[in-house]
Structure formats: structure tokens, C-alpha cells
Amino acid sequence: MAKIKEVRCIRTRTNGTWVIVKIITDQPGLYGIGSASEHYHAATVVTAIEESLGPMLIGREVSRIEDIWQSLFTSGYWRAGSILNAALGGIDMALWDIKGKEAGMPVYDLLGGASRAAVPCYAHAGGQDHEALVDDIQRYIDEGWPVIRCQLGGYGGGGFLDDAIKPKNAWSDAAAFDDEAYLEAIPAMFDFLRKRLGFGPKLTHDVHEHLRPQVAVALAKRLEDYRLYFLEDVLAPEQIDWFRLMRQQCTTPQAMGELFVNVHEYLPLISERLIDFVRVRVSKGGGITPCRKIATLCEFYGVNTAWQEGGDNDPVNQAAAMHLDMSSYSFGIQEENHFSDEELEAFPGHATMDGGYMYSNGQPGLGIDIDEEKAAKLLKAEPLKAYFAAADRRADGSIVRP
Length: 402
Fold this sequence. Notes:
This protein is an alpha/beta fold and 402 residues long.
């Protein structure tokens, strides 16, 4: 059996925000890659892999994926954090990639085989006003996208006030986020969209956890008549108990989980059927090993998966999500992601998008590789710098949690 010889990280994309794990075995030419990307703490994840988790793997058999996952998960005593999960997720994906190559099968075949022809995805439409938004949605409809997310500008769009009443010693000159303004703007947006587009298009919306819990419940209730495919991240992860009240108030489908890193966050929401789509990012959930278990749990309770992607994600994590999508009966919809031609050239074998569907190349393992020379050329800035989550504020200066 092949054994692990080397574990290292490759930082790529502008400012090195993508972290790709490469596990090299003692068999000539046999290696695997995985995504450990952490937009805000990339250097921290690299250190965790190369100085802590990686050395523990040297000499271990690559086939023992479950045992490796369980031992690494508790190796630092404290567990289920975003940094550990990202590091663990990258290692786990790389091991599945190797296992598929050894078997001569794509990972989705190792997970039980394809249960669909291709992976339907949802698009991201936006506009600064209603007319611009309709135009963008129509563009995706014409391209054949089955589900389309609708945003009035960026996250929180429709809820920012330039004329908010601020204290004399205001901390910021920027527009202030106002919960009540958002509560008026978004139902009005969907009223406009349904009158123009009808109820044929499947539409979603992402709140991005901006609202106070009481307002979040009110928003879900007001949107019920517009028949959303789902309402995404209407609550911050710290306030998930409010989903119980929301379920009592309305039938608007709920998608949640972009920030989840702990089983105790999503377990009650799935087992009590309080959400309809779970949106954990595969790398942040700890990789393919735990996420396939989430998918099975969802099947038992009638909940669907909608693994998170987003603009900061990389083609390797997308490939891992696609393999779970292909093999899982509980799959619902996949968030799409767009990459530049230059970025895709650095990842030969990447998934392909066509008309709102994602397609696998059917190659063994994850089917994706990394061209390290081209990946190095993606780095545009020196020295590499850290990124931080946006900090929107209310009129009084208090932070709005993203």
C-alpha cells in the first residue's frame, strides 16, 4: 500500500489566498491535491498543515482516510474550528484524490456512483436597481440556469441609508445599514420581480446574516408569497435557535450553513427539519469524509445539500463539492463559481460549466490537477497581505455581523 512521503502547501491566486495541499506518496508519480483555502487566514492554515498536521502523516498508509481524519481531528485536543477544519479538509480531499487514482475511478464512483447526469447550479444576479436586476436575471434565464440568486446591489443592498440619523460623533461617514429599510426593500424587490418575470424562474436571496433575529423572522414571513427556492443565511450562526420560531411563522424555504464548522451547529437544524438546504463549505466542514456524512444525514430528514462556494473559493474545493453532488441523493443545488481563464489554466481537469450545469471529466480521483508553474504566476502582490471580513455598521456605529 502507498504511504505518505511528503505534505506541503501551494499558495496561489492574488496575494496567495488559495491554499492547495499536495500529498506525495512513496509510489512514483502518485499524489493528490486538496483545498485548504482560507481567505482571511491563509498563512495560519499553511503553518497548521506544514508544522503540525503534516508531520503526523509521514509514513502512514494513504488508504486509511477515516482513521487519519479521526486522529487529526482530535490531535490538538480542541477541535471543530475554522482553521483546523480548513487544514483537515485539504488533507482529506487529497487522500480521496489519491484513493481514486489508485482505484482508477472518479471519487463519486467510490462514494456509490453517479446519481445524476450533471450538477445543476444557481447563478448570482445583481443590479443597483430593479430594472438592472431584471436584465441580469433574464441573461441567466436565457443561458439556461435552473435557479438564480437575486441581490439588490451587494450584500445588504436595499438596507443602506445615506441619510441615516447618526450621533454627532459618528464613527463612519459611510452609509449605515438599517434593518427596517432592508425589511421594506427586499419584499418590494421580489414583488417587482414576480410581476415582471412570473413564478416560472426559481429565485433565491442571500441575507448574509445582516439582520437582527426578530427582523429576520419578519422578512421570511413577508417573502412567503413570492415562493423563493430558498432564503439564504437569514440568521447569524449564533442565533440559529430562531429558526424554530421562523418555521412556526412561515413556509419560506431556508438555506443555512456557510459559516458552520461544528456538527452541533447543523445537527439540530437538520434533525428537527428547521432548514431545507445545508450550505457548509466542503473544506470548512473538514473535507469529503465528514460532508458525505452530512449528506446522508440530510437524506434521512428530507433536507438537501447546497455546498457553499463563493468568490474566494478555488477550483479544487469546487471539484470536491461536485463529486459529493454527483453521488448524493440528498443533493439539492450547487452554488456556482467563476474563475478567470488564467486561473483555470493553472488547474487542468477543472469542472466545466455549461448552461447552468456543472460537468465532471470522469477522470480518476478528483479529476483535477495543479500546474505549479502557472499557479505561481497567479501571485500578483509582494509581500502577501492578510484580508479581513467587511465591517458594515448601523447608524450608531455598532457592527453588523457578516
